[in-house]
């Protein structure tokens, strides 16, 4: 397979070594070797040996004594260029008297990698056969396929002379794949899996970078968009609730009970702010309770109504099949038509009052499909009234539908 072959100098040096490359023309490159100055010296003596891991010996590949200009610039050019491989470099320093300063001699190792220009021609999210990932798709698996050229296997050890790294970037974040699933034999296709929890809404580029540092281009061909299919969620739900009075004995003393089973509730939530870390929105929750009780010489009945506006935070789990919710808000508690009934058809004046109240609760939504869900929740409602300070707990279960 014809490829554009370039030798790239990558190095791991001690305090005064460095290496560079100079590209002269297409397909032509010069390898430069530079280092930090040791001060006033006569010359440097440079020896480069190739490391053969199969042998304890290293074979000398390059030897050079610097000229006056090279000594001043602390840079030489290696010609002919060294082939790909692992090398060791030794620099000896001669002072102005031409005497070798053995204490200043130092060595290091570096690697010359084979360089192939990676190309990414298209990016496909296999779930929907598009270059788009919808974060609210419950079937998300994070598996992406790229097609192009020079897409080699990765090498975490960086010991291979030819390898390719893959990552997503939006200019700020760099997200590496959790797993490389497969490579094609002709190095034209790679399938990988990303962690969906690390992806945020936005446009990403899938970049392939070879061992030498050459990267694929930032073009529309290697773009991957991450977004929500639905920009807003609207949930409507209705179900059963069972209020328990927790404190203030006023109602308990009159009714003879702290639990009122004839109750129901409805709710609606609107979630317009959707991010990878969770959803933010507003909602409305109302409940109705028929309260009946009796005393030694009377019966009492009435309607207890709660209505609250809520601020809501939701966090999806398990590919959005389960959603945890926190909500809090304020509203009103209505004591409606509370009447004492005595013997001989004597009734008290109906009690009707509206009080300020506050609601805080948690909920869990379990989705049966993309729309239908059941919700289990618990709310604490605190009511401020001039005669009583009522607190009650409202565990609930409901069926809902998401639009």
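^ Assign residues to that structure.
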């Amino acid at each position: 397979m014809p490829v554009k072959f370039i030798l790239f100098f990558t190095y791991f040096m001690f305090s005064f070594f460095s290496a560079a490359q100079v590209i002269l023309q297409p397909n032509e490159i010069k390898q430069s070797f530079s280092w930090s100055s040791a001060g006033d010296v006569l010359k440097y003596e440079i020896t480069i040996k190739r490391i053969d891991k199969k042998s304890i010996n290293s074979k000398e590949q390059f030897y050079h004594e610097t000229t006056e200009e090279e000594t001043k610039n602390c840079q030489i050019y290696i010609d002919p260029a060294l082939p790909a491989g692992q090398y060791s470099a030794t620099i000896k320093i001669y002072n102005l008297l031409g005497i070798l300063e053995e204490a200043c001699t130092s060595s290091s190792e570096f690697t010359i990698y084979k360089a192939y220009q990676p190309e990414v021609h298209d990016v496909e999210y296999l779930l929907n056969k598009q270059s788009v990932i919808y974060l609210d798709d419950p079937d998300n698996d994070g598996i992406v396929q790229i097609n192009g050229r020079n897409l080699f296997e990765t090498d975490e050890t960086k010991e291979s002379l030819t390898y390719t790294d893959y990552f997503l970037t939006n200019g700020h974040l760099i997200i590496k794949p959790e797993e490389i699933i497969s490579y094609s034999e002709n190095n034209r296709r790679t399938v990988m899996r990303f962690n969906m929890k690390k992806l945020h809404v936005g446009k990403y580029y899938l970049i392939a970078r070879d061992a030498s540092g050459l990267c694929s281009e930032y073009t529309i061909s290697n773009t991957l968009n991450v977004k929500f299919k639905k920009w807003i969620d609207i949930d409507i739900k209705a179900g059963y609730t069972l209020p328990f009075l927790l404190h203030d004995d006023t109602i308990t003393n009159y009714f003879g009970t702290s639990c009122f089973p004839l109750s129901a509730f409805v709710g609606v939530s609107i979630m317009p702010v959707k991010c990878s870390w969770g959803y933010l929105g507003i909602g409305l929750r109302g409940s109705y309770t028929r309260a009946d009780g009796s005393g030694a010489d009377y019966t009492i009945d009435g309607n207890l109504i709660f209505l609250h506006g809520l601020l809501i935070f939701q966090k999806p789990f398990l590919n959005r099949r389960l959603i945890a919710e926190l909500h809090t808000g304020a509203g009103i508690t209505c004591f409606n038509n509370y009447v004492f009934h005595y013997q001989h058809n004597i009734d008290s004046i109906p009690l009707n009052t509206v009080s300020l109240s506050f609601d805080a609760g948690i909920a869990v939504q379990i989705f049966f499909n993309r729309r239908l869900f059941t919700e289990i929740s618990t709310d604490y409602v605190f009511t401020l009234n001039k005669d009583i300070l009522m607190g009650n707990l409202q565990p609930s279960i409901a069926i809902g539908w998401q639009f």
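Residues 167 and 289 are 56 Å apart (CA to CA).
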